[in-house]
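User: Let's play a game. I give you a shape written as tokens, and you guess the letters that built it. Ready? Here's round one.
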């Protein structure tokens, strides 16, 4: 029998839904707080969880990663209030199965619950038969494990696949993983770097040419599309493909036939297409820079890779893996790491993602020379400065107990510099908050992006302090919608 969990601090909502779910012959439990929810989730296995987006002790979505880590993780249906148009997008983007507006009809709750249970059972049955070869893929965070499910789906089909994600997230690695787990694994995996091809040579590189077709064509060339016959054609940075070639390639995708430059005969190639880009193709379509019909054909299966800042748990595994490779390559014994090394790496936002992490680790490795241990001081100076500034912003004025008990702490309680109690003059909190942000100018000049991040953190701290964490007041003062406010708080790992 399916088991359902309701996480909502509104007792009336819990009782109403429990009564309905029991009548549907499912087992049901309820929790009015995050603490109670964790107790139930740790002791029992659930098929579906109804999760209120606004709990008394934490933002509801904050528990989603914990739920997704569970063995045979339940499907999550978000409960969100009326007047929150971004609630649906926020719920789905965080990996929820679906969302319901409160109040919802009995029919709507029953239909949504029934579909979620059916999906959960079918997913569990299909997962038993899938065993992926994930050689080279390092990390087991919830967001990455969700990608493995899509890799399995893509590997079992011949459909076109589109992999999106920021620079350095491992798009080519995942494309190769799909190929390696597919029925085409024994044939070629052909890489086409669309960003590196000049306009005059794109057609020749893709489709090949006949001898004498143009100046410099001294012999026949079969082209990359032909080389991928029976295997996989990987178009990296597909967003850079010129518009005229987008039209030509659309026909190739439809027919799997093409004509080499200078030839009169068409050639057939049975390739499987995987594309990748770090650009927003939907936005490019709206600007007229990418063909809508081509995008539809590319994204039959869509895999969006999470940035490294969204999978911080994987940084330790990636670091150990890459340092071991560096030591082996240089015929050196494995180096140790000091206790602050990994936390420092996890405090950086990694705009270049895994590629940047590996580059930084390599620089730290060679900076440590013959030493047996890699210390934080071996990291590049620019990384250490950015981490220090981020910690400074989190700590407010940076003069709390963590700095040896010096007087004065940042926003959120304690005393002001000089020992004055913060509660004595709460109206001055924002002034001091801005002062702590402006202090970064005494160090190296930050980028505008960095400064905006510091100011955003200080604004949220003062907003929470001045409203005592009252959500409705915070929304009214800030002018932010509920979902936008939640997103900012989650971004900076702050609770109300």
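Assistant: Ready! My guess for every position:
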């Amino acid at each position: 029998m399916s088991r359902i969990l309701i996480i909502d601090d509104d007792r009336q909502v819990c009782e109403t839904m429990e009564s309905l779910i029991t009548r549907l012959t499912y087992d049901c439990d309820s929790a009015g707080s995050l603490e109670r929810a964790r107790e139930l989730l740790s002791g029992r296995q659930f098929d579906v969880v109804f999760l209120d987006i606004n709990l008394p002790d934490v933002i509801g979505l904050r528990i989603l990663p914990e739920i997704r880590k569970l063995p045979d993780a339940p499907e999550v249906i978000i409960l969100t209030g009326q007047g929150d148009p971004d609630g649906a997008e926020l719920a789905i983007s965080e990996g929820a199965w679906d969302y319901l507006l409160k109040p919802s009809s009995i029919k709507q709750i029953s239909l949504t619950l029934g579909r979620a249970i059916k999906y959960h059972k079918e997913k569990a049955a299909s997962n038993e038969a899938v065993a992926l070869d994930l050689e080279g893929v390092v990390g087991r965070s919830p967001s990455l494990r969700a990608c493995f499910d899509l890799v399995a789906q893509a590997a079992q089909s011949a459909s076109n696949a589109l992999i999106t994600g920021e620079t350095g997230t491992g798009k080519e690695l995942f494309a190769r993983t799909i190929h390696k787990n597919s029925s085409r694994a024994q044939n070629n995996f052909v890489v086409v770097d669309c960003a590196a091809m000049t306009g005059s040579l794109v057609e020749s590189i893709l489709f090949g040419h006949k001898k004498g077709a143009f100046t410099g064509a001294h012999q026949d060339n079969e082209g990359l599309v032909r080389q991928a016959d029976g295997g996989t054609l990987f178009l990296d940075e597909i967003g850079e493909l010129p518009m005229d070639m987008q039209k030509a390639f659309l026909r190739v995708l439809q027919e799997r036939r093409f004509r080499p430059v200078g030839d009169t005969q068409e050639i057939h190639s049975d390739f499987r297409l995987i594309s990748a880009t770090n650009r927003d193709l939907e936005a490019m379509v709206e600007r007229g820079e990418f063909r809508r019909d081509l995008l539809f054909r590319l994204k039959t299966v869509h895999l969006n890779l999470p940035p490294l800042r969204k999978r911080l748990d994987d940084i330790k595994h990636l670091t150990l893996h890459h340092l071991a490779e560096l030591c082996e390559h240089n015929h050196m014994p494995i180096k140790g790491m000091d206790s602050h090394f990994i936390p420092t790496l996890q405090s950086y936002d990694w705009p270049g993602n895994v590629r940047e992490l590996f580059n930084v680790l390599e620089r730290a490795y060679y900076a440590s020379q013959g030493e047996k241990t890699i210390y934080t001081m071996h990291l590049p100076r620019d990384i250490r400065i950015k981490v220090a500034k981020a910690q400074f912003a989190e700590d407010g004025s940076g003069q709390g107990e963590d700095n040896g008990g010096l007087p004065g702490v940042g926003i959120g309680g304690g005393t002001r510099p000089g020992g004055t109690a913060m509660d004595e003059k709460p109206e001055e909190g924002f002034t001091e908050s801005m002062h702590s942000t402006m202090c970064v100018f005494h160090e190296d000049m930050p980028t505008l992006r960095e400064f905006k991040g510091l100011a955003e953190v200080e604004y949220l701290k003062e907003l929470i302090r001045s409203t005592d964490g009252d959500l409705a007041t915070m929304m009214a003062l800030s002018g932010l919608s509920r979902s936008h406010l939640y997103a900012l708080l989650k971004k900076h790992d702050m609770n109300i």
